[in-house]
Amino acid sequence: LDEVLDHLANKSGLLGLSGISGDIRDLHAKAAEGHDGAKYALEVFVADVRRGIGAMMMALGGVDVIAFTGGIGENDDVIRREVCRNLDQLGIQLCENANLDGDIERRIDADSSQVQLWIVPTNEEIIVARQTVSCVTEGS
Which residues does 45 contact at the CB level (< 8 Å), separation at least 6? Predict the structure, then answer.
């Protein structure tokens, strides 16, 4: 059981798919060099995000906003572009220029997009601070 848990925790995901790394930056570099495993891992990652967006849109009857956050969502313009590619029929249209340049927190949808697309920085520290304050004040 420990071996299975170790494998799932440390050797699966992007690393397992690519056979080389779980870091998306490494995968982009290796994919550019023609590494098939890296290309495959990136394709699967994008397909999973797109599938998640589609599932949420169906479950909710549509969406008003999609937020890209976390290390990849905030920093990887290629992944954002690929996630949004050919989703016009869902009202999702990316503005290429906004996707590439701008403030850290910004709107990146095209004027014709029915769904707003945002890059939103993750602020994990504030979440931890709020939970800490909540625990301390509840214990008083």
Answer: 14, 24, 79
C-alpha to C-alpha distance for 75 and 57, rounded to whole angstroms: 24
Comparing CA positions, the residue from 67, 79, 73, 71 lying closest to residue 42 is 79
pLDDT tens-digit readout, 29-77: 999 999 999 999 999 999 999 999 999 999 999 999 999 999 999 999 9
Q: What is the 3-state secondary structure (H, E, C) of 29-87?
A: HHHHCCCHHHHHHHHHHHHHHHHHHHHHHHHHCCCCEEEECHHHHHHCHHHHHHHHCCC
**Quick one: tokens of 8?**
């799932």
Which phi and psi angles does 116 have, rounded to 5°?
-75, 140
Any idea where the domains of the chain sit in the sequence? 1-62, 63-125
The SS3 of residue 94 is strand
Burial class (CB in 10 A: 0-12, 13-18, 19+), 26: middle
Q: pTM for this structure?
A: 0.84
For residue range 106-125, list pLDDT tens digits in order: 999 999 999 999 999 988 88
